[in-house]
Design goal:
CATH topology of the largest domain: Glutaredoxin
Structural class: alpha+beta
Number of domains: 2
Order of helices and strands: HHHHEEHEHHHHHEEH
Distance between the termini: 33 Å
Helix content: 55-70%
Strand order of the largest sheet: 1-3-2-4-5
Largest sheet: 5 strands, mixed
Shape: elongated
CATH superfamily of the largest domain: Glutaredoxin
């Protein structure tokens, strides 16, 4: 935030003008008047720096409020694709009173950090419907992991998907054909059909739909959560997620 953006509000609050700040016309002043006025403003702000900080805080609050309203409008416009697209994995309580969607990347360190806390939230609450949307944005390994998870879901169903999803979220090593093959075998799945499916149009359609939806919602990073009509961009700790859910239920 720079002084030129906050100055009109500062002048009004500090009483430097007799009318509204918008009525002040510095261009109508002489050079000497402008110099004296600027010196007075500078002296006031140096003596009272908290005024400037308060004004900046008010402006930032207004900006956050405007962004939240814009996010809510985008969520409402894309509610069908977000909450009930017919192909995304749904966990938690499918009949829950709150729906939470996560856009995630298996290579995202903050997604991995959020993973156990999301699991704790779902387990402790028991009434949250949870939707996962793969959004691989961190390179070829991210894409391969997302393709693998979606292929498993399409070939082997929801329970198998949950197993590999959790394993991928906790995986710390490289993601390649060998590591994914070992993972498939570890779950008793035949790796060859899964690997073939990964490059097929059915998997590509899911990931493309997720990418298109993320663009519509102006999502550029992971994790991003949509909790009912609220969008939460980035990692948030468990306590904050619990507060959001409680606030939504209290509305």
């Amino acid at each position: 935030m720079t002084l030129r953006y906050a100055l009109p509000l500062m002048l009004s609050l500090a009483g430097f003008v007799t009318g509204p700040a918008a009525a002040l016309d510095l261009a109508a002043m002489s050079e000497a008047e402008r110099a004296a006025f600027r010196a007075e403003v500078r002296a006031y702000l140096l003596d009272n720096p908290e005024v400037l900080m308060e004004a900046i805080a008010v402006l930032e609050d207004r900006q956050r409020g405007a962004e939240a309203v814009a996010d809510q409008a985008m969520v409402q416009a894309n509610a069908g694709a977000l909450f009930d697209d017919g192909f995304s994995w749904v966990g938690g309580n499918p009949e829950g009173d709150i729906t939470m969607v996560e856009f995630m990347d298996y290579r995202c360190s903050y997604c991995k950090r959020a993973f156990p806390e999301v699991e704790d939230l779902l387990s402790a609450d028991g009434n949250i419907r949870f939707v996962v949307k793969e959004l691989p944005i961190l390179g070829p390994q991210s894409v391969m992991a997302a393709q693998f998870a979606v292929a498993v879901q399409q070939l082997h169903g929801e329970q198998a998907y949950k197993g590999v999803h959790d394993a991928l979220m906790q995986l710390q090593g490289e993601i390649n054909a060998q590591s994914l093959g070992r993972m498939a075998n570890g779950f008793g799945l035949d790796a060859a059909p899964i690997m073939a499916r990964m490059e097929g149009p059915e998997v590509a359609a899911v990931l493309e739909a997720n990418r298109a939806l993320a663009q519509m919602l102006q999502i550029s990073g992971t994790p991003t959560f949509v909790i009912e009509d609220q969008m939460v961009r980035g990692y948030v700790p468990l306590a904050q997620m619990e507060l959001i859910v409680a606030d939504l239920r209290g509305q």
